[in-house]
C-alpha cells in the first residue's frame, strides 16, 4: 500500500485521487524548510510518507494504534509525547476516521512547538470506508471552520479531484468491484476499464471550472499554522 499511495497505477480505481494527494502534499512540503526538524505522522498506517519526509532532512516519527508504529497512540487517542516536541504534524486521510476531533486536534496543538505547522488532508466527497470507522465528510468551509475553532489557521487549501471526476471515480469503483468477482478475466477487464475511466476523469477535471472544483472536491489538503502561532 505504501508504494501505491505515492505512485498509484493508472489501472487503480483511485488513481486520480491518490496522484492528486501526492502532488499536493509534495507541493506543500516544498514550501517548508524541514531540514533538522521533527515531523510527526499522526495516524501513520504503514508509513508511506516516511521516505518523503526524511528525504527533506527531517526526523520522522510515525504514530498509530497497535505495535507497528514508532509511537503507540493510547486507546483514548492521546500521544506519549511531551508538549512542544515536534515542528510539524502530518495527517493524511485520517481525520474522517477520528471519533473525537477535540482530542485528536488537541493533541496536535499540544505537541506542536510555537510556529509549528499542520499538513492535513481529508475527504470532501467519497465512499464510506471504515478503517475501522468512518465518521464524516467536509465542505471546504466546514473544514476551515472545524480547524479554526480549534486554533488552526489554514494558509493554503488544495482541492483534489472535482465533482465531475469524483462521480466517475465512484462509478468506476462500483463497476470494478463487480468485475473483479468474475473468474479469470474479471481483473483484466476491470483494469482496462479503470484506465479508460481514469482518462475520462482526468479530462473532466480539466474542464471543470476552478471555482466549482475549489469548493467541491473529493479531498482537501490544508497547510495550517498551529494555535501557538
What's a concise summary of this model?
The chain has about 230 residues and is an alpha/beta fold. The protein is built from eight helices and seven strands, in the order H-H-E-H-E-E-E-H-E-H-E-H-H-H-E.
Number of domains: 1
Measured by DSSP, the beta-strand proportion falls in 15-25%
Which class in CATH terms?
Answer: Alpha Beta
The strand order across the widest sheet is: 3-2-1-4-5-7-6
Order of helices and strands: HHEHEEEHEHEHHHE
Helix- and strand-based class? alpha/beta
The rough form would be described as globular
Radius of gyration: 18 Å
Helix content: 25-40%
Write the layout of secondary structure elements.
Blueprint: H1 2-6, H2 15-30, E1 38-42, H3 50-54, E2 59-64, E3 71-72, E4 86-92, H4 101-111, E5 112-123, H5 140-148, E6 153-160, H6 163-179, H7 186-207, H8 210-215, E7 219-225
Parallel strand pairs: 1-2, 1-4, 2-3, 4-5
Antiparallel strand pairs: 5-7, 6-7
Features:
21% strand, Rossmann fold, 229 residues, 8 helices, 7 strands, alpha/beta
Q: What this model shows, in words?
A:
The longest helix is centred in the C-terminal third of the chain and has 22 residues, at 186-207. This protein has one domain: Rossmann fold. The chain has helices at residues 2-6, 15-30, 50-54, 101-111, 140-148, 163-179, 186-207, 210-215, and strands at 38-42, 59-64, 71-72, 86-92, 112-123, 153-160, 219-225. The protein is α/β, with parallel strands linked by helices and 229 residues long. Strands 3-2-1-4-5-7-6 form a seven-stranded mixed β-sheet, with helices on both faces. The chain is globular. It is 40% helix and 21% strand.
Amino acid at each position: 500500500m505504501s508504494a501505491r499511495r505515492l505512485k498509484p497505477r493508472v489501472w487503480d480505481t483511485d488513481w486520480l485521487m491518490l496522484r492528486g494527494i501526492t502532488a499536493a502534499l509534495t507541493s506543500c512540503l516544498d514550501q517548508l524548510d524541514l531540514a533538522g526538524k521533527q515531523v510527526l505522522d499522526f495516524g501513520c498506517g504503514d508509513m508511506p510518507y516516511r521516505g518523503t519526509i526524511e528525504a527533506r532532512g527531517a526526523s520522522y516519527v510515525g504514530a498509530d494504534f497497535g505495535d507497528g508504529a514508532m509511537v503507540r497512540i493510547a486507546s483514548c487517542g492521546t500521544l506519549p509525547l511531551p508538549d512542544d516536541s515536534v515542528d510539524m504534524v502530518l495527517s493524511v486521510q485520517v481525520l474522517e476516521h477520528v471519533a473525537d476531533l477535540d482530542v485528536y486536534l488537541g493533541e496536535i496543538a499540544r505537541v506542536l512547538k510555537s510556529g509549528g505547522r499542520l499538513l492535513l488532508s481529508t475527504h470532501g466527497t467519497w465512499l464510506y470506508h471504515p478503517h475501522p470507522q468512518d465518521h464524516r465528510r467536509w465542505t471546504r468551509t466546514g473544514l476551515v471552520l472545524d480547524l479554526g475553532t480549534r486554533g488552526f489557521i489554514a494558509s493554503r487549501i488544495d482541492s483534489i479531484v472535482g465533482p465531475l471526476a469524483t462521480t466517475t471515480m465512484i462509478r468506476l469503483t462500483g463497476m470494478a468491484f463487480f468485475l473483479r468477482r468474475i473468474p479469470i478475466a474479471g481483473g483484466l477487464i476491470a483494469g482496462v476499464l479503470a484506465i479508460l475511466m481514469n482518462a475520462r476523469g482526468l479530462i473532466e477535471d480539466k474542464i471543470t471550472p476552478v471555482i466549482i472544483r475549489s469548493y467541491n472536491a473529493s479531498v482537501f489538503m490544508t497547510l495550517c499554522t498551529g494555535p501557538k502561532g
